[in-house]
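Hi,

I'm pasting everything inline rather than attaching a file, because the server keeps stripping attachments. The sequence lines come first, and each chain or strand is labelled.
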Amino acid sequence: MKLLIIEDEEGLRESIEEYFTEAGNICETAATYSAAISKIEMYSYDCILLDITLPGGNGINILKRLKDNNHQDGVLIISAKNSLDDRLQGLDLGADDYLVKPFHLSELKARVSAIIRRKMYNGSNLLTFNEISIDLQAKTVSVHDKSLKFTRKEFALLIYFIANKGKVVSKNAIAEHLWGDGIDLADNFDFIYSHIKNIRKKLVEAGANDYIQAAYGMGYKFAGQ
Amino acid sequence: MKLITLYNRVNIVTTIAVMLITGIIYYQAISWILIDQADKSLKVEEDEVFDYVKLNKQLPQVFESKDQQISFTSAAPNSVTREFIDTLYKKDKDEVESGRGLISSITVNGKYYKILIVESKVETEDLIQIIFTITFGLILFLLLVLLVANRLILNRLWQPFHAILKEMKLFNITDNKEITQTETRIDEFADLNQAATAMTIRAKHDYKELKTFTENASHELLTPIAVINSKLDTLIQSENFNDRQSKLLNDLYSAVARLSRLNQSLLLLVKIENRLLTDQQTINLKQLIDEMLLQMEDIFADKQITVTARLEDKEISGSRYLIEILLNNLIINAVRHNHAGGEIVIDLTTAALTIKNTGADEPLDVDKIFTRFHKSAQSDGSGLGLTISKQICQSLNFSLTYRYSKPYHTFCMFF
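And the predicted assembly:
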């Protein structure tokens, strides 16, 4: 898929670009308001990652421009401003999602995947990964057409892993994804472990490959192509 | 004690004292003058007797006068000393008045007589009494006038002071409202008013600066935190790490997460205090708490905490975002300060939400738990959770209280 990263902070822009490029996506970047405008005028993207505060202008205006010209690009706002007004303003104007800085790249990837899924497979809610198929609407998981019982969190975690397949996802990122960033019980992530153990067990017992690997004690990786 | 009470007390006591002292002096002076008068008239009478005796060589005839009596009695030679005395004046048989007398002596034809001249003092005393009554009445009247005047005038005079005081009491640094000017012609109060207004403007200005600074600093801080976080995410993709390296990376992750949460909490506090989150929604608390408990069940299970929830339906109106944070903070607080195998009891009635948890065997410091950055030694939180909860409660006009009764630490929120 083709992404446009509009972000003026070089370090962050590079990280995002690298994270998405490695997963086989095409990424273009814009560091200023005017650069962003000329890119969106010329090309179309599957998803645009849009920072609000930019040199030379406000990201919200870029969003307005996209919507005024009826561009179909998905838009994910990434901003350090997390006031409710900013969120609502962005979403009201037609952004698909809003992510507050700082975020984990895996969270960003999951959000982008969700937007693209909604855009690309319009109507279809089926997500397949090799022998695993997931019905996003009904929230069911099946392997080789055999339906599995997943809890809400296990389901969310599996989707998260698939969106970040091939990437090491940190335990912090998983905890924040599942429990929200309001929960700062960072001293103990044992409960993540039990969720992952359950997912692996259910998938393997149903005849799927064991895709989830522990990665150097700091996180997990959903391996496989 | 009120200023007016103290003032009245001092005023009345001094007035009475001064009046009494002057009254006594006045009385003494008048008495002295009148007695001197009486003595002079007695002396005139004595002189008349002496003159009469010198001329006639015999004692004058004693006659009844209306207010003067003279009597002569023979006495041993030279036994009488001349003196003025206070005595009684027999008006009628059984009517006695106070009187002033002069005892003197005279020798007539070789015979020694004691002379006693007595004058009635009734009129003098009447005069003194009248003067005294008038004076006393004057004192009473004066006191009464003073009291009433103090009550009325002072109360009115102090009106601006009370108005200014009320304004100052109502003053809230986070409000956008200025304190209103109180009209007054009295210089002192006008000064006070000016000083108060200037002070509040200065305080507001400083507060605003600080607030802007906090917000800006917070926003600026978020960007590098975001960079660090994303770089860490990128770094862990790269290669295999040994245990030591992964431990370091984990610590970095935790520190960054903590930093970002701290930053968010600070920003949130600024926003709540400035009432920047004002969206109103009707929220079913029971539903919200049920959802949260479901969301956190792994955390409870991990710490082997038993959660008992007795929830009645209760709807409140406020910002959903804030109420979620409030409940989240309180529940997480109950988990964090619990011990493995502990207990959390949540009671929701239409009047209050009570969250009880087991934990340390001693009460927390009630005065400090709601202050910023106060946390117990074991706590790994930011020390802002309860402060934020308290602030949210305040913004919703709820009260949040803490109490400890063994073995439960109880936070209670009254709607």
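The two ends of chain A are 16 Å apart (CA to CA).

If the labels don't parse on your end, tell me and I'll reformat.
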